[in-house]
């Protein structure tokens, strides 16, 4: 795999289309390096291979050189005549990019008097500090070539050992003088690029990006209509898109990224990214299309009806992937000037959603975003899902969304979650058909009621019971909201010297993500279960009232 490209480098071929330059260094010294950490040598490690000649030194690895690696991978050539590093990146089976780096010209070392012998060669010691890491290099000048297992120390001599922070060691295991074999050459075009673009291309090739929404406006408008592949509901405050997710292996790690800017709305708003399960008789998508009142009703005796908040045998509520909160008018209101405040241009939200991989794996899914607002300009978002390979293996999981009281269809008549004014709170009945191991509940909770005595500003204990046994008993509270002041240009300033965005809240801050609580449940046997959420919700005052947006997803092996 791609041996022709490696041959191109070894033969000194700098490819600009089909251009060729012959490499004349032969024979060369091949140095094989192994690594260890805290004195332990990992099994089946990918050895570093360095091919050093008088004019050029090639840095690669055993797997790269033999063609058994996976994309993307890199190799580089130190051009000793020009004193620069030529970089080659193989992004996939079609794309190869190249760039140059002259940073080795500015490397500085402290040359020490210590010496030791490595593989029969007398080595001197040099030391430097890189990004707060202390690097010690042992190099010899008893061979007629220069090289190192990394770009660091290439001009010292032949580096036979590199030690980082005293415990991470890369050491030469073997030095061989040999002729460089020259198999039949196959050209592969390369694209010359600047160094920053080169590094960015490598970074982005290491993971898969699935675009969800790009510069998508979420606003309130009577004229809002679906267009293209974006479905719009609730007067434009909900956008939904059908997304194809590829096959995920057991080592995949998934992240959800969302970037938000005000497009006219000055207020902090509740936002959510959600997946709509469609594996039951009725789905939340039906409610979006036909109205909130068509969703299964939940009552608890307080005289009110709540639509689509709890799982039933025929209905699964939306699976919340991310709860986020917009700040006060980021970007749109950056013209508001305060001395010493340099407002941010957008809010970046990023959350690990690997727990929900089983609900995404190799499926076409409906993913939606809601931001509650009554503004014609509203908000603008860009959202992506990124899939990263090479994490720890994870078992195949069962995912069961149990409840979601966030009134996503708020602007289409879905009631606020005020059911916690009753001692029954929220009660969900569900059944498990087979035993589940290592079960846990992902519980997201935020309190709302934006006046002095509202639950947004009053700490309230959340209690969760499973079959009448308490499994969670905690006051969710955020005291770090002042850290995000620069995302909140339109935040109101008070006579006390505080701004509204500074105030502590019931588990959320303007301009942040709210993380779920991970509640361990251990092994759950097959059978019927009752889960109950209780919160001492505050009483209304005039037209003001409190509500709690809570969602819960059962995850297990």
TrEMBL record:
Q: Which InterPro entries match?
A: Cu2_ascorb_mOase-like_C (IPR014784), PHM/PNGase_F_dom_sf (IPR008977), PngaseF_C (IPR015197), PngaseF_N (IPR015196), PngaseF_N_sf (IPR043022)
Q: What is this protein called?
A: Peptide-N-glycosidase
Q: Which UniProt keywords apply?
A: Disulfide bond
Recall the taxonomic lineage recorded for the source organism: Bacteria, Pseudomonadati, Bacteroidota, Chitinophagia, Chitinophagales
Instruction: Indicate yes or no for the key word Disulfide bond.
Output: yes
Q: Which organism is it from?
A: Niabella pedocola
Q: State one Pfam family annotation.
A: N-glycanase_N
Q: Which domain of life is it from?
A: Bacteria
| Peptide-N-glycosidase F N-terminal domain segment(s) | 209-387
């Amino acid at each position: 795999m791609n041996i022709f490209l490696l041959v191109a480098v070894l033969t000194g071929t700098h490819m600009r289309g089909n251009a060729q330059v012959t490499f004349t260094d032969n024979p060369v010294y091949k140095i094989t390096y192994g690594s260890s950490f805290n004195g332990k040598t990992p099994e089946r490690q990918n050895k570093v291979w360095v091919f050093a000649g008088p004019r050029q030194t090639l840095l690669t690895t055993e797997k790269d050189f033999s063609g058994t690696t996976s994309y993307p991978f890199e190799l580089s050539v130190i051009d000793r005549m020009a004193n620069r590093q030529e970089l080659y990146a193989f992004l996939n089976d079609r794309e190869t990019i190249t760039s140059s780096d002259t940073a080795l010209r500015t490397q500085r070392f402290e040359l020490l008097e210590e010496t030791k012998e490595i593989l029969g060669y007398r080595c001197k010691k040099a030391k430097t500090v890189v990004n707060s890491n202390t690097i010690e290099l042992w190099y010899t000048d008893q061979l007629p070539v220069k090289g190192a297992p990394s770009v660091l120390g290439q001009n010292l001599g032949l580096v036979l050992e590199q030690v980082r922070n005293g415990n991470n060691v890369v050491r030469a295991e073997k030095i061989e003088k040999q002729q460089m074999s020259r198999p039949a050459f196959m050209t592969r075009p390369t694209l010359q690029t600047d160094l920053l673009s080169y590094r960015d291309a490598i970074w982005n090739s290491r993971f898969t990006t699935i675009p969800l929404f790009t510069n998508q406006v979420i606003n309130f408008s009577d004229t809002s209509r679906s267009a293209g592949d974006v479905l719009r509901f609730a007067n434009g405050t909900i956008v939904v898109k059908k997304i194809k997710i590829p096959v995920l292996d057991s080592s995949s790690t998934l992240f959800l990224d969302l970037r938000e800017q005000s497009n006219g709305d000055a207020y902090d708003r509740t936002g959510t990214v959600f997946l709509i399960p469609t594996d039951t008789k009725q789905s939340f998508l039906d409610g979006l299309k036909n109205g909130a009142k068509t969703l299964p009703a939940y009552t608890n005796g307080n005289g009110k009806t709540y639509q689509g908040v709890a799982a039933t045998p025929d209905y699964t509520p939306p699976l919340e992937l991310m709860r986020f909160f917009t700040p006060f008018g980021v970007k749109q209101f950056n013209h508001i000037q305060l001395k010493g405040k340099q407002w941010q241009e957008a809010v970046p939200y990023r959350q690990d959603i690997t727990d929900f991989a089983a609900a995404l794996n190799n499926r076409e899914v409906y993913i939606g975003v809601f931001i509650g607002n009554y503004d014609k300009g509203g908000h603008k978002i860009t959202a992506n899902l990124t899939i990263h390979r090479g994490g720890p293996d994870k078992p195949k999981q069962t995912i069961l969304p149990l409840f979601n009281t966030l009134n996503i269809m708020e602007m289409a008549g879905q009631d606020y979650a005020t059911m916690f004014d009753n001692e029954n709170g929220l009660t969900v009945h569900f059944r498990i058909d087979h035993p589940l191991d290592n079960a846990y509940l992902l519980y997201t909770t935020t309190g709302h009621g934006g006046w002095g005595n509202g639950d947004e500003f009053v700490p309230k204990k959340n209690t969760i019971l499973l079959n009448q046994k308490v499994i969670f008993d905690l006051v969710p509270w955020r005291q770090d909201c002042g850290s995000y002041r620069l995302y909140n240009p339109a935040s109101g300033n008070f006579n006390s010297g505080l701004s509204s965005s500074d105030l502590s809240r019931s588990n959320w801050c303007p301009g942040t993500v709210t993380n779920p609580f991970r509640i361990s449940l251990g092994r759950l046997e097959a059978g019927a279960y009752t889960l109950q959420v209780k919160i001492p919700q505050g009483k209304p005052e005039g037209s003001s009232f409190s509500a709690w947006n809570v969602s819960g997803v059962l995850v297990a092996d």
